[in-house]
Amino acid sequence: MRAREPDHQGYVDNDGVKIGYEAFGDGTPTILLLPTWTIVNARFWKAQVHYLARHFRVVTFDGPGNGRSDRVLDPQAYSTDAYANAALEVLDATGTGRAVLVSLSAGAQWQLQLMATRPDRCLGGVFIAPSLAILPGHPARNAILDAFDEPLPTVEGWAKYNRHYWQRDWRDFSEFFFSQCFTEPHSTKQIEDCVGWSLESSVDVMLADAAAGGTSKEQILAWCDAIESAVLVIHGDDDRISPLSRGKALAEATGGTLVAMEGAGHIPLARDPVAVNLAIAEFVRGLAGDTSAPRRWSRGRTRPKRALYISSPIGLGHAQ
For residues 205 and 51, what is the distance between their CA atoms, to the nearest angstrom? Predict the structure, then answer.
């Protein structure tokens, strides 16, 4: 049972890959909730859709390899270019001229590309726990990622993030990975949901995704420099996947606002949805010209870039 069923759903063809999308509500403006890593599908936004669609129009789509989209094994289908183009196809299919973009983790890459290269389609953007090479990640995890294709002498901890272990015990890796995403107490349900979505994909799909690679620091900074619309970054200070320092660096590079959530892990939108939903809604109202929205949410930025830091005004438990 879903809190809200889609008002419209369909598919787009993205260079031969079928991509499933859904639309909810009829308010303005439209919020496009982007896909993240292939390990989950668009249902990871389930705690946002029902609230945001009461005030705005909300569009989601499944990235390739999960949900209602094709299980394609061509790494090119998982490139940043492919995701960005899929987003444009979905905007066209839903009759959306411009939208506020919202991403989680790896989705920050395609969101940055869209905001930098297609400002005509983007009103502004919210980045949640951006996983970007703008700064190094956690050292222990980075060391394992560099050895992804090599057989390892252990399967403890982050050593599970390995091609050979994925092929041996994908479910165990998934359970470990999401235990690291949710560092907050009492996250059993959120972990179970994410593991279930991960099992809707396959190891072959995930390996194709891994082969697509990521975006370089140089490209990320170039995109950040090109962005002129308003940016909000929400990042937990207990994120064990992508450190808070990356969120701070992204806010600085885009002249955006950083909200640091005390005690929050990598997916605060699932563990503290009320706080995240209120922050997104406040940001969108500011972009739409709502005079009751705080002045920090502007339609665009002014140079020189100046990041605004807010120390956990929506921290865990404070916005219920």
Answer: 32
Indicate the residue type of 12. V
Residue 292: what pLDDT? 62
**CB distance 103 to 34 below 8 Å:** yes
Residue 144: band (very low, low, confident or very high) from pLDDT cuts 50, 70, 90: confident
- As a whole number of angstroms, the distance between CA 70 and CA 62 comes to 9
Between 217-226 and 244-254, two packed helices, what is the crossing angle to 10 degrees? 40
State the Cα–Cα distance between residues 274 and 279, nearest whole angstrom: 9
Q: Is residue 12 within 8 Å of 89, Cβ to Cβ?
A: yes
CB-facing half-sphere around the CA of 246: CA atoms within 13 A: 28
Question: Using the 8-state DSSP alphabet, how is residue 58 labeled?
Answer: E
Q: What residues have CB less than 8 Å from 109, skipping those under 6 apart?
A: 80, 83, 132, 214, 215, 220
* Least confident segment among 8-12, 118-122, 313-317: 313-317
Cα–Cα distance, 228 to 295 (Å, whole number)? 17
- Comparing CA positions, the residue from 19, 47, 49 lying closest to residue 33 is 49
The reply to whether omega before 304 is within 30° of 0 (cis) is: yes
Neighbours of 132 (CB within 10 A): 25
Q: Which residues are bridge partners to 300 per DSSP?
A: 229
Residue 308 pLDDT level (bands cut at 50, 70, 90): low
Mean pLDDT of the chain: 92
